[in-house]
Specification:
This protein is mostly beta strands and 177 residues long. The chain is 12% helix and 51% strand. Strands 1, 2, 3, 4, 5, 6, 7, 8, 9, 10, 11 and 12 form a twelve-stranded antiparallel sheet that branches. The radius of gyration is 19 Å and the shape is elongated.
């Protein structure tokens, strides 16, 4: 039972570290490849569309599109030649990856239809058949949430998708008598 707890804890820790690494730039460069990129100062957003691939040395994220919603600075008037000026580069409100989302990190894989990261709340939410896989260990549900500020995770079932987990225990573990 302790080893099963260790595997579950390990999987959940992976989820926490994975989600932090996918949303914080730190000092590592992030490369984004896409068919198109659109910046909308009026909508405070940047949209990457078409075969989007986000790579950093420690992870890869793939999706049909990624929308980055920026927080607007308090200053109101912006000269036309300084269109990006009203945005704080660190002022990201939320990031939404959608359409066949796949996140790879050190041999571990997370998939879903939509992954939304709420920066202020420190919440990463996976929806649309979310599934996490670490080798043969898997967990899925209707929604998977990672509360980064509280260091906790939730897998929520729904009417059409109950929570399902499969954990492979080492052969050395004996069943209790």
């Amino acid at each position: 039972m302790n080893n099963l707890r260790t595997y579950l804890s390990g999987l959940l820790l992976f989820l926490m570290f994975f989600s932090v690494s996918t949303v914080s730039a730190g000092t590592l460069p992030i490369n984004i490849d896409a068919d198109t990129m659109t910046y909308s100062p009026s909508g405070n957003e940047v949209v990457f569309k078409g075969n989007v691939v986000v790579k950093r040395t420690d992870f890869t994220l793939r999706a049909s599109s990624i929308k980055i919603f920026m927080q607007k600075k308090k200053s109101q008037k912006v000269p036309a030649d300084k269109a990006l000026a009203p945005f704080d580069p660190g002022g990201i409100q939320k990031i939404i990856a959608s359409g066949g989302v796949r996140m790879d990190y050190q041999g571990k894989v997370g998939t879903c239809e939509t992954a939304t990261y709420y920066v202020v709340q420190g919440l990463l939410q996976m929806e649309g058949n979310p599934k996490l896989q670490d080798g043969q260990n898997t967990i899925k549900g209707a929604v998977i949430k990672f509360h980064l500020n509280d260091n906790r995770s939730e897998v929520i079932g729904g009417k059409s998708q109950r929570v399902k987990a499969t954990f492979q225990a080492p052969d050395k573990i004996k069943a209790p008598k």
